[in-house]
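Honest question from a wet-lab person: if I give you the sequences of every part of a complex, can you actually get the arrangement of the whole thing, not just the pieces? Trying it with mine:
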Amino acid sequence: MSDINQNIFERYNFDRSRLMDVLWDFQRRDNYISSDNIEDIALCLKLSVNDVKETLSFYHFFLDKPFGKHHIYLSNTVIAKMNGYDEVRQALENETGCRFNGVDKTQAFGLADANCIGLSDQEPAMMVDEVVFTQLTSDKVKNIIEKLKQGKTAEEIANPKRYASNTLDYVHAIVDSNIRTASRVLFKPERNYKQILNTLITTTKPEGVIETLIESNLKGRGGAGFPTGLKWKLGREAQGKDKYIICNADEGEPGTFKDRVLLTESPKDVLLGMIAAAYAIGSNYGIIYLRAEYWYLKAFLQQQIQDFRDNGLLGKQILATAFSFDVRIQMGAGSYVCGDETALIESCEGKRGTPRVKPPYPIQQGYLGMPTSVNNVETLACASRIIEEDSAWYNQLGTPESTGTRLLSISGDCSQMGIYEIEWGTSLNSVLNMAGAVNANYVQISGPAGDSLSVEKESERVFCYSDLSCNGSLMIFDHTRDILNIVSDYAAFFVEESCGICVPCRAGGVELKNKMHRIIDGKATQLDIDEIKQWSKLIKGTSRCGLGTAMPNSILATLDKFSDIYFEKIMVQKGPLLASFNREEAMSAHELAYDNLVHKGEE
Amino acid sequence: MVKIIIDGKEVNAEIGDNVLEAAAKNNVFIPSLCYVKGESVKGENCLGTCRTCSVKVNGNIMAACTIAVCEGMNIEVNEPEVTDMRKALVELLFSEGNHNCPSCEKSGRCELQATGYEVDMMVSRFPYRFTPRQVDHSSKFIWLERDRCIFCQRCVELVRDKATDQKIFSIRGRGTNARIEIDKSLADNMPAEQVRAASDLCPVGCIIDKSQGFDVPIGRRKFEIETIKERALKGSIDD
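Yes, you can. This is the full assembly:
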């Protein structure tokens, strides 16, 4: 082992399960992870070289060869493509002198695409090293690349006032939060966290916290909608030497950015939610799994954790009780499927983000085989408010079955993109009005994995768990947008993000993508439509995790609700196969010929 | 013992058995390509990658190897919809990789080929992709014929170097680009019987023993004498 590597390994105690962090530290130091260093990592973490490469090669942002001094990833979502993606892409190639998926001659820039980077409210957007640039134009790109060439860092360009990276000012200098509604549950200003936690610990037993959560009817906000109180109850009852709380901050569903805003504006709500979960379940250790697209939030979040430690809300003997709990941040490295809780746990353990076979569920056997409660950022923030007020207060909001509020990340064809906190029970129509969507035709909720809505037919539908159980992503498209292209883009997204472990998702996804191309190219027939339906059933029925089961959703839903646009594209044979062929004439000609020949022969 | 229902018939099953094993013990064959009987992987008793053992459990489609039996469980194996799904998954594998049975050393002992026969596959309903795949012949004892790999993960999870307990086969890349890699230095230390075992473990002709080929003449190979179904059902009765 070389001496300069020693520090990195010591930082993580030579622990194999911290491979993600080790890889990041090498990459941040050297700009990529060299094969010599891969060997060193293998040696020091007691792994084989192939083990290291197995993890490394799974993640979009890990590099095993040089990719320039500055790594530039342009977000290629459908929303970006509606807002000048092509122009920005061209500008990037022109200014850097390098093609996408390549490095320029001077080895200064590496260019590549990235799937949604959580900035749909300010596209086109790109990641440069560890910061992001939003609302890009070709002029803006020119300016940024020029400054990089002059030797400025991306951070200096994005943050010209030089705010410290652990401050809210720094985050605000880089991205806007765009909160469009007044606080109801979330984003409550100036909360006294110490007092809230103190009241909780001194007046309520862990079982009481669970009881409150069950009464509040809070459901997981990540999309699956599992009752949070029940999850914590199962966690409390589960047997294990250690128990873990994981905050899932890997929002990768294209179009969603609510967790980015929550972690920016109310990070301590999320931390308090984690502490409450830990107290309820009996856990001493928590992890925030933060997607790599949000590197610019890391120092700020680390500071929030430190503030809580300094105030006795995190660490040993919290508020002078026997309860101990601390939190670390685990950086992801570019993988949508890691939003699946078992894939996320694998990633936390330094492995490929392959979803596990379930059962067992994480609440029984999760991180390092121990009971683990994985909760969404928004769920934890809601929980922190429920323990402050009470379940009755929370039940007043929303509907009896879907209590409380839901954050929506709204993007696309509307005048006010951004974050909206709506009460469950709000109709699609009123949401579109709020956002200033005047000519909406098609709305995609819960991202490509979710549902496709026809505004004409479904504007009265209501956001709630029994109707539109949206996970927070809401993309609006007006009448000028090409739905087939959007859906085809989604199909390609799933192929790129499939982990590849199971057959229907890995191989079936490619078939669906190819079918969409056939339709767009005008080469499809009714048979293709029938096969899409049959094959979708196969993929939905037999895939191992939610990625596969959700993959066909947007195709099936648009096929159902916007069938006209599909049928305009497919080849339909009207009338007989050969329109110019007259059977009777042909037959009589035969008879004539026959007669002539036979009679000629007789003569 | 618990009572379960398989295709409408009430039968007994041992607690702890998964649906695949319980069905076999009751003389009902469920095709599978990644499942290895009696092997435990990371505490799980299955890999759950190929999904060709999909059946309906209480009306929901599930991979039989991933589900433990429980009292009253209603399992549908030979139900038309899910039967066709199993067939479709086998066909999907044939169109995804490059499977040329007549020229393959594994023909007659290939589980994919035998399962293809078992599910009545004639031709894949999916377009053949002719995916270009690199083969790796660099190791001393093993041909790694990736054209035939179905990415079942058996070799990745179950073949270890005896001295270091490290994996000899591993994964690289993800999604459609994912492939199996071989650790050449560890593979070159494999004793002959381990090479043979790895080649036998591979359900297809991806891991081929360089030292031994066509040792059993075609026509007398295991699935040519007995179908994969007969073998599977007999195997579990023998236990």
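Two things worth pointing out. Helices of chain B lie at 19-25, 80-96, 111-118, 154-158, 184-187, 192-201, 222-225, 228-238. Residues 2-88+227-238 of chain B form a domain with the Ubiquitin-like (UB roll) fold (CATH 3.10.20.740).
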